Amino acid sequence: MSAPDGLPPLRAVLAEYGLDPKKALGQNFLLDLNLTGRIARQALPLAGCSVVEIGPGPGGLTRALLANGAEHLTVIEKDSRCLGALAAIAAHYPGRLTAIEGDALKTDVAAFAEGRPLKIVANLPYNIGTQLLLDWVAVPSWPPVWSEATLMFQREVAERIVAKPGTSHYGRLAVLCGWRTKASILFDVGPEAFTPPPKVTSSVVQLHPLAEPIDVPLEALEAVTAAGFGQRRKMLRQSLKPLGGEALLLRADISPQRRAETLSVEEFCRLAALL
Ligand code: SAM
After folding, report:
1. In the chain, N or C: fewer CB atoms in 10 Å?
2. Which residues form the Ribosomal RNA adenine methylase transferase N-terminal domain (predicted)?
């Protein structure tokens, strides 16, 4: 029996192509097309956009993106075993899906925009999710080519992305994402939704690039957040010593006795601008 999109159910796809999940590739598959449809709909409208999906695996989210109107979808998958399943989806939606075997960490997604607004949608492999997000946020020039990213992370990572100052999850990731994007958690997905189930809850996060983030050099902001959060329990006059310590803080009108986790994104930018 086929699924509502006319393709085989995802469990049959796993069996047909021998896709037993590999932990090293962060393979926790979503086999419920209702759920992948819910994720895809967060990225609407898809028509008229270029869409990039990282790690399509057997194609549950890929199919949902196509069923919800994606006309120019590029998927990047490291596991060559998935390519047969993806080719079958491409044949079902002629001219709309390009599957690339490759490493997303070495792929510049901007290359797939082709003059259209670019949306990134993915159930990311948990082991490289943070690195990929930082690659997309810490690009040399801003605004980036992508106009929206809808991404599944482990809940704990999602909380670190959207964290506010003074909370335990607030750190380098929140400052960099808060500086250049508006990020929000859309909904949680329990472990039971995945095959195999991970140990923790996941969350879908959506990010939109800010048109005009505070104008400071990326390297300076990275340096000040790395130093501050590298020793987050210490007062800033101590943790920022290599960058100018107390004198730098006083010039930025920030008390040297404060700790990194109490500083707003704007205050980090003030420090970065003085480096
Ligand atoms: N999108 C599918 C789903 O929702 O069922 C699979 C998601 S699974 C969490 C992550 C996928 O990313 C796997 O298919 C895995 O093979 C792929 N992957 C892992 N590392 C990758 C990398 N460096 N580049 C591209 N894909 C990668």
Report:
1. N
2. 35-211
Tell me if 30 is assigned to a ligand binding site: yes
| 146 and 209 Cβ atoms separated by less than 8 Å | yes
pTM: 0.96
The full set of domains in the chain, from first to last, is 10-209 (3.40.50.150), 218-274 (1.10.8.100)
Residue 255 Cα to ligand 1 midpoint, Å, equals 45
Helix axes 155-162, 129-137, angle to 10 degrees: 20
pLDDT band at 256 (very low <50, low <70, confident <90, very high): very high
The CB of 60 under 6 Å from ligand 1? The reply is: yes
Interface confidence, given as ipTM, is 0.99
Q: Verify whether ligand 1 is closer than 6 Å to residue 272 (CB atom).
A: no
> How do residues 54-74 score in pLDDT, each as one tens digit?
999 999 999 999 999 999 999
160 lines ligand 1 (CB under 6 A): no
Ligand 1 neighbourhood includes 55 CB (under 6 angstroms): yes
